[in-house]
UniProtKB/TrEMBL annotation, chain A:
It comes from the Bacteria. This is Taurine transport system ATP-binding protein. Pfam families: ABC_tran. The keyword Cell inner membrane applies. Coiled coil: none annotated.
TrEMBL record, chain B:
One of its GO terms (biological process) is cellular response to sulfur starvation. It comes from Litoreibacter meonggei. Keywords: Cell membrane, Membrane, Transmembrane, Transmembrane helix, Transport. Belongs to the binding-protein-dependent transport system permease family. Residues 227-407 form the ABC transmembrane type-1 domain. Coiled coil: none annotated. It is a multi-pass membrane protein. This is Taurine transport system permease protein. Probably part of an ABC transporter complex. Probably responsible for the translocation of the substrate across the membrane.
Length: 268, 421
């Protein structure tokens, strides 16, 4: 079968003092090609761990990840990743960063050049392609990271709070860009965020995770991502269901946070 | 003490003078008022006027206290007394007193010591004369030629009319006249405030030495050979040290076995000052080029290894993850991520290593060498050629500073992303 399958993933980290922490417990998920899923949860719910396992940076204690039918055993170009920040190569120009994936495959300029320039156009960085990374603003750097990931043509794009370090205005523009790229490329995308609004807007499916141990708490299917493709995101936010869902999820997460705080107080 | 006081006075005076002069031209903004920038280290810029005044002050003080001909003589500190001086003394021989004059010729250190000829004069005390080199003093038994001297019970009771007794002293216009317990006069001409050339030659003497040695050479080698040999040793020693140290550091940063194997060696050798290795290296390799280069190799090796190791360890793991998920192989990650990422650290290490090597080579040449900047100043000091010593120190400083400037320039050119991620 095609798509991404997450089967009964559990992850336990050993602590230096001999104990262990159950970061994920029995997480099972199926993603069809072209699905856009956002993952939301209080801090410590294992969402980044889950993403790292899917990317292949971590091996799960139990369970397996399957991609297009074969089991995942490590990082691969079929699963691209966009990090929050700090993942660009400062010693390369913007264009060299975007062309990194194809170059590592041994492609020549003639093969990847046109596609790289097209992607730079899409993310609006054509005028900056010869600039150094440290000359760009935070939003521009994330657009480079997006373009670099797309240039490699992965089947799944994993995003680990890619917009978390950006200011509110830049963030809104970037959210539209992500939606546009999702529709144009038809990639499967998993996006981790700690912003409820972002999760609503950028989640065709929205997964709420609960902490200790990290597990799937509830899943939503939402219309907002499809609406956001053609509409202004501020219009989408006026949708009658938007606020209702937002309140519901916020309350859910607040309850979880309070439970954590309560537990910490008891133990203290 | 006086010199320090003058220095501080110029420091303070210069500050207020520059402040007064620039006050009218500077805008009164927040920066000038230092209200918001106080405590902000990045807002502190060196005041170039202060730098210029500082350098001028150093040369001014140097010239002033060495009687340099480069600065007008009214700026000179009081010089040591030279020329003729006179004082008289009074002898009391059993109730009879008589005066006689002592003529002193204070001559330049390297000049002729002509004793002035004087008339004996009348009375039983006869006139004396003596010649003393600048900065020296002499004992003079003034009663030796008198008709009634110490042996006959005569005593010197006054100098220039001021009473003196054994162990006492009288200050005359050009000298201090002290009396020993036995009654001999010790004549100490005034030394002034200027330094003796033996301790500190004036700047123009150092400059003329530079011209002289750069044209005629020193100890069978030209100046450029001396400096060139020192530089050659540093560069060769550093390059071999880097060629071994950087791969070693990479291996230590990437492999547990290498890390474990070399950690004790590197951690032990790092705090050993290279100077402490000089005796061992001389025993092993002698005082020739091989010994020097081995020493500098050892000085650079550990610094470069540690720099390369921390450059590898310091790679942000997300960069490696990103490269993996973009399909890079281990070798490609090494080539395109880990090596470029470690370059800033390596450049920092190289700058430190070059500085340490330059210091070490000079020290090693001080100990034993046939050519080199350190050997030049060591030999010169044995012959009390203070001007050559000073010239050598200045040249060593200039070269050391130039090396650092060059390394920083190369750093800006080759790793422009340093400190900007």
């Amino acid at each position: 079968m095609s798509g991404l399958t997450i089967e009964n993933i559990s992850m336990r980290f050993d602590l230096p003092n001999g104990g262990s922490v159950q970061a994920l417990k029995d997480v099972t998920l199926d993603l069809k090609p072209g699905e856009l899923m956002s993952v939301l949860g209080p801090s410590g719910c294992g969402k980044t761990t889950l993403l790292n396992i899917v990317a292949g940076f971590l091996a799960p204690t139990e369970g397996r990840i399957a991609m297009n039918g074969h089991t995942v055993h490590g990082p691969d170009a079929e699963r691209g990743m966009v990090f929050q920040q700090g993942a660009l190569f400062e010693w390369m120009s913007v264009r060299e960063n975007v062309a990194f994936g194809p170059r590592m495959k041994g492609e020549r300029e003639a093969q990847y050049g046109a596609n790289v320039d097209h992607l730079l156009d899409v993310v609006g960085l054509q005028d900056f392609k010869e600039k150094a990374i440290y000359e760009l603003s935070g939003g521009m750097q994330q657009r480079v990271a997006l373009a670099r990931c797309l240039a490699n043509d992965p089947d799944v794009i994993l995003m680990d709070e890619p917009l978390g370090a950006l200011d509110a205005l830049t963030r809104e523009k970037m959210q539209s860009l992500v939606l546009k790229l999702w529709k144009e490329t038809g990639k499967t995308i998993i996006l981790i965020t700690h912003s409820v609004e972002e999760a609503l807007l950028l989640g065709e499916r929205l997964l709420v995770m609960a902490p200790r141990p990290g597990r799937i708490h509830k899943e939503y299917r939402l219309p907002f991502a499809d609406l956001g493709v053609d509409q202004d995101l501020r219009e989408v936010k006026k949708h009658p269901d938007y606020n209702k869902t937002r309140e519901e999820i916020l309350a859910m997460i607040w309850d979880m946070e309070e439970e954590i705080m309560g537990r910490t107080e008891e133990s203290a | 003490m006086t010199i320090l006081a003058i220095y501080v006075a110029i420091f303070i005076g210069g500050f207020f003078a520059v402040k007064y002069i620039t006050a009218s031209t500077q805008p009164k903004d927040y920066t000038s008022l230092k209200t918001v920038t106080f405590g902000d280290e990045s807002a502190v810029r060196p005041n170039r006027a202060a730098s210029i005044i500082s350098i001028v002050t150093i040369f001014l003080l140097w010239g002033s206290f060495t009687g340099s001909s480069l600065i007008p003589s009214f700026l000179h500190a009081p010089a040591a007394y030279t020329g003729l001086g006179e004082f008289n003394y009074t002898v009391d021989a059993n109730g009879q007193t008589d005066d006689a004059t002592v003529t002193v010729n204070v001559h330049e250190t390297d000049g002729e010591a002509a004793v002035p000829e004087v008339e004996p004069g009348d009375g039983f005390a006869k006139n004396d004369s003596i010649s003393i080199a600048k900065y020296r003093s002499k004992l003079l038994r003034v009663d030796a030629n008198d008709e009634q001297g110490r042996d006959e019970g005569a005593k010197i009771v006054a100098v220039n009319g001021k009473a003196i007794e054994p162990g006492g002293e009288v200050i005359v216009d050009f000298a201090r006249i002290a009396m020993t317990p036995k009654g001999t006069l010790n004549i100490v001409p005034k030394t002034g405030w200027q330094m003796q050339p033996l301790y500190l030659p004036p700047p123009e003497k150092v400059a003329s030495r530079l011209v002289e040695i750069s044209s005629t050479g020193f100890r069978n080698s030209t100046l450029w050979e001396h400096l060139g040999y020192s530089l050659f040793r540093v560069i060769v020693g550093f390059l071999i040290g880097a060629a071994v140290g950087i791969p070693l550091g990479y291996a230590m940063g990437l492999s547990n076995w290498f890390r474990g194997w070399f950690d004790p060696v590197v951690e032990f050798m790092r705090p050993v000052p290279p100077l402490a290795l000089i005796p061992l290296v001389i025993i092993w390799a002698g005082i020739g080029e091989v010994g020097k280069i081995v020493l500098l190799f050892l000085a650079a090796l550990w610094i470069m290894a540690i720099a390369a190791r921390s450059g590898v360890s310091g790679v942000n793991i997300t960069k490696v993850h990103a490269a993996y998920s973009l399909g890079a192989s281990k070798w490609q990650i090494m080539r395109h991520v880990i090596i470029p990422n470690s370059l800033p650290e390596i450049f920092t290490g190289a700058r430190v290593a070059m500085g340490v090597c330059w210091g070490t080579v000079v020290a090693a040449e001080l100990v034993a060498a046939e050519k080199g900047a350190g050997m030049m100043i060591m030999v010169a000091s044995k012959f009390q050629n203070t001007d050559i010593v000073l010239m050598g120190i200045i040249l060593i400083g200039v070269i050391g500073f130039s090396i650092d400037v060059l390394m920083r320039w190369a750093e800006r050119l080759l790793v422009p992303w340093k400190g900007r991620s």
